[in-house]
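Need residues for this backbone.
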């Protein structure tokens, strides 16, 4: 009997000392949000790979923040209601679905104390693995504790609950309570690269190309914007609009970058040229430029904006976009 207990103890000890056993039993993850990366959603933040006071993502970029434990999937549309999906088979351990969809900048940290994940679902996958889906939309949770779920089961919808300032899904995978970067896995690998055994399934990983910078949203308005404004989509501006303003939200700007915005009149004349230097790394950056109306009215026709994000040691812009809006009678 003692011999059997000794063998059992050795096997248990080997499982803790040999991370390969954890990897072999790890769930193979699929995309937890029903969207297409690079088209209607983006990964804005990755797990913090820096064990110290700084932060970095698994590619040695800065799409993270200190002690961030999950992967943030952000819809491109600020009004999206995208289904959140189980990333692997398992059983629901817990849910919460009673928190309002309000930015923490409005609520304050005290209002969400000990409920930072907002409305969320936790799924256990066995062998010490579990996943969490946080910041879901109030009233959208479609599963309950104790319910078995399959990969792809709709759990709820992306929301703005808990400790967040923008609509997104925080997806976190844990082993024995420790957060694991799904792009790295348990065994790690070469620095600034995918891990030797990433937790994403092969077909999912092929859809998760690293996007260091991208435009989240952009548009036009006829009035200056406050920092927290979420402008409605504007299809056109009146010729008597008091101003013609272009606004833009972009993620992944870096110290040393320069944003270049050119505004053109319907006849092709340059109305505005502005170069905006970036002095520090920012996961998300918002800016607006424009002109007040001079005279009784704007000339009618299509106004066009050329946007370029220039990066040191890059011969070509890392982002190059065109936007336009008609000014109508």
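Answer:
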């Amino acid at each position: 009997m003692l011999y059997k207990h000794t063998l059992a103890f050795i096997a248990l000890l080997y499982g803790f000392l040999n991370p390969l056993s954890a990897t072999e039993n790890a769930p193979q993850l699929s995309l937890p949000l029903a969207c297409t990366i690079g088209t209607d959603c983006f990964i804005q933040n990755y797990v913090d790979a820096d064990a110290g006071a700084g932060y970095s993502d698994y590619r040695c970029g800065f799409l993270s923040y200190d002690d961030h434990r999950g992967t943030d999937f952000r819809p491109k549309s600020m009004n999206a209601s995208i289904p959140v999906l189980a990333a692997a088979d398992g059983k629901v351990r817990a849910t919460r679905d009673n928190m309002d969809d309000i930015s923490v900048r409005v609520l304050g940290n005290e209002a969400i104390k000990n409920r930072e994940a907002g409305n969320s679902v936790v799924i256990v996958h066995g062998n010490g693995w579990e996943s969490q889906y946080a910041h879901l939309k109030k009233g959208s949770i479609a599963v309950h504790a104790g319910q078995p779920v399959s990969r792809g089961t709709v759990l709820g919808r992306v929301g703005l609950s808990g400790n967040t300032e923008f609509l997104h899904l925080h997806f976190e995978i844990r082993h024995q309570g420790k957060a694991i970067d799904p792009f790295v896995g348990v065994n790690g690998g070469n620095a600034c690269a995918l891990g030797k055994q990433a937790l994403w399934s092969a077909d999912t990983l092929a859809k998760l190309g690293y996007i260091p910078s991208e435009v989240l949203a952009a548009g036009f308005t006829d009035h200056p914007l406050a920092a927290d404004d979420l402008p409605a989509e504007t299809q056109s501006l009146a010729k008597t609009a008091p101003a013609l303003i272009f606004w833009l939200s972009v993620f992944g700007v870096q110290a040393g970058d320069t944003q270049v915005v050119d505004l053109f009149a319907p006849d092709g004349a340059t109305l505005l040229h502005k170069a905006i230097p970036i002095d520090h790394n920012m996961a998300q950056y918002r800016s607006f430029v424009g002109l007040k109306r001079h005279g009784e009215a704007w000339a009618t026709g299509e106004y066009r904006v050329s946007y370029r994000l220039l990066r040191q040691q890059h011969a070509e812009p890392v982002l190059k976009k065109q936007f336009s809006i008609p000014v109508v009678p």
